[in-house]
Amino acid sequence: MLTAPHDLSPCLRPGDEATHLGGMPWEDRTGRSRWAEFYLVLHRAGGAWTHLYRVLPGVRLELVLVRAVEGDARAALQGAFFADGARRFRKKPPAAGATGSRPLS
Question: Would you report the helix, strand and coil content of the chain in percent, each value rounded to 5?
């Protein structure tokens, strides 16, 4: 199931669920501001994992894995994303009780 304006099919398998969280300006490592869209994806194959992706639209779609958490952590990641804002979110530790979290950017 996909509730998003971008085609994320390269990273989705049958049974996965993707949710579009919204878009905002994103400052990259060089300090340049670009528009980015954010998605939560629950992957079910081989055990459940929840991924937060940053998508940079352009001539070619750039898909960046921001955070990976073992299990279905959609509610916790979505709450943290909106409470802390995307810029601060990537620097925050995982929500209490989350296991297997790995910040990736």
Answer: 15, 45, 40
Mean pLDDT over 31-53 rounds to 90
Calpha distance 82→49 (Å, rounded): 20
Q: Where are the alpha helices (DSSP H) in 1-105?
A: 74-84, 86-89
Q: How far apart are CA 66 and CA 35, in angstroms?
A: 15
What is the tens place of the pLDDT at every residue in 43-58? 998 889 999 999 887 7
Say how many CA atoms lie within 13 Å of 15 toward its Cβ.
7
How many whole angstroms separate alpha carbon 100 and alpha carbon 78? 17
End-to-end CA distance of the chain: 26
Residue among 92, 74, 88 nearest 24 (CA):
88
Rounded-to-10 torsion of CA 73, 24, 7, 30: -100
